[in-house]
Amino acid sequence: MAVARAQEGDEAAFAVAYRIVQPGLLGYLRGLVGDEAEDVASDAWLEIARDLGRFRGDGAGFRGWTATIARHRALDHLRRQKVRPRASALEQDMLDLPGTHSTHEQALEALSTEYALELVSRLPRDQAEAVLLRVVVGLDGPAAARVLGKRPGAVRTAAYRGLKSLARQLSAEGVTDDGPRTLGESR
Amino acid sequence: MPERHDPDGRPNHRSARPEGSGGRPPRYVAPPGGGAGGGANPPDLSALLAAAVRVDTVDPEAEGRVLAAFRAARDEGAHGVARTRRRDDWRPEGERSRRWSVRAALVALTASVTLGGVAVAAIGTGGGARDDNDERGRTRPSSSAPDTATTAAPGSSAPGHADGPSDRPSSAQDTEAQCRAYESVKDRGQVLDSAAWQRLVEAAGGEKDVEAYCARQLTEAEERNGADKAKPGKSPVPSATAGNSSGNSSGDSPGGSPGKGSVQDAPGAKSTNGAKGKAG
To answer: A20 φ, ψ to 5°?
Structure first.
């Protein structure tokens, strides 16, 4: 297993673990802190690299452990910034309106990511985090609950409600949507 | 994230939206049942969400920094010595809880030993203080011995204390109290070894001089107190009258006596005295 080999000092194995974990971790952080996600992820990975020897567990455990570290870094960041995560995502959305992208297709693809983040950021915080940890990071229920410091039942409910709410919003906007969706129109 | 967008075409087949098959790929499709049935179709939504939010492009620069940090930590030996905290232990539940229960037991043991030591220390000091009080207290009830009773009675005559309790320095008070107690414990040799008694003996200038010293001290105390009564020290003879008078006087001003440590004992001495007086 990559993590175990990395703990024995294998740099290539650590690179493998990084590439497996980073996409979901960065997505989760984008949901939490918007466009500061890269910086926060960088901080988190420095801590992960330093504390790797402390970790005990398998690959799934490594996902949960790294998510916990990333979450703490994100919350530190938010405390420093005194900015609500949804506000930061919102500002980012406003800056990233299509039109600055080179092709129509790229604009749509970029928008879809931003739009997804915007929908998630409209959810209550506990639902948004539960959905992101379950769906984007790929944690199971107990692991997500441990990351959030909550009971598994509470996190399961939050994830369910979050997804249901997202589906409802999508269907509602789907009915009225008859053109390329932009943030300005969706508001 | 180009490779992630290929699967996005899949929902087209399941899409209930006619316009979803239009000119753009529908990232998000309404569940077939509409809003009410939204919860019925979360897997599709989850896949879409994951595809949209995950960041599958790796920034080589960021990766380079992370790997450099990894090498630095490894070469410092940080990975070998770091202790696993509870939050670092992500092994399956059973394994983890067994391991941590052992650790928890050790922590509990350490804590109990530490706290136990503190408790014993507290008992040690508290007990010592209580012993002291007991010694003093015991002498008063045991003032059934005639001469002790007579010495105690005048000293503890309530009016004197009521008039000027703060006039006397506390050391004099202590000496006075010790002298009274001394009467009753002097025959018990080992008690005199204690530090307080040693001080008394030292102040007196020798064990055989303690009685004289105490007599002096008590007389002085009387004189300090006794402007009101002008009682002549402590001779066994006025025992009965002293008992009566002190009983009377405390009856005159009962409010003055309680409060001071040495005074509180007066009732005991008094009652003994009073009984003696009546008996005699």
So the answer is: -75, -40
